[in-house]
Design goal:
Shape: elongated
Largest sheet: 3 strands, mixed
Number of domains: 1
CATH architecture: Roll
Distance between the termini: 10 Å
Strand content: 15-25%
Number of strands: 6
CATH superfamily: CBS-domain
Helix content: 40-55%
Radius of gyration: 18 Å
Structural class: alpha/beta
CATH topology: CBS-domain
Length: 154
């Protein structure tokens, strides 16, 4: 039987709750991933931050004011609009991760079957499941991509 520890990515790339959204965005971009477990100083899971969380927060805070159907900046864009966009991104970058992360986290242990992990992901409609040890410290992560690789190798 395939277990979570057999398919998880370890160590998981994570971020602390007191770090900035800019640092989270840099990690997401550098590692070409769409979400990160958020941990406290002891390495315990306190949330998840994903590209969806960042986009949702940006929309709520009007980081980019939308004057047209397009977000593209053109040579004809008003300088005030460009300054407004810059201020919005600067505000977003300074925001702490804990202000926009998802606090409800579904995690699993290393000994959980891959089938049960897949069921949890499907039932809760989540794209990633952190894997934790007995003390709830992050030891790895299973993403939907990891599940696809697992299925391909069976």
């Amino acid at each position: 039987m395939t277990l979570a520890k057999d398919i998880m990515s370890s160590p998981a790339i994570s971020i602390r709750e007191d770090q900035s959204v800019k640092e989270a965005l840099d990690l997401l971009a550098r590692h070409n991933i769409s979400g990160l477990p958020v941990v406290d100083d002891d390495g315990k899971i306190v949330g998840i931050i994903s590209n969806t969380d960042v986009i949702r927060y940006s929309q709520q805070k009007n980081v980019i004011s939308q004057h047209s159907a397009s977000f593209w900046v053109s040579p004809y864009t008003d300088m005030d609009d460009i300054a407004s966009i810059r201020k919005g991104f600067e505000m977003l970058h300074r925001t702490r991760v804990d202000q926009l992360m998802t606090r409800k986290v579904y995690s699993t242990s290393e000994e959980t079957s891959a089938t049960d992990v897949a069921k949890l992901m499907n039932r809760r409609n989540v794209n990633r499941i952190p894997v934790v040890d007995a003390s709830k410290k992050l030891v790895g992560i299973i993403t939907r991509a990891d599940m696809v690789k697992c299925m391909a190798n069976l």
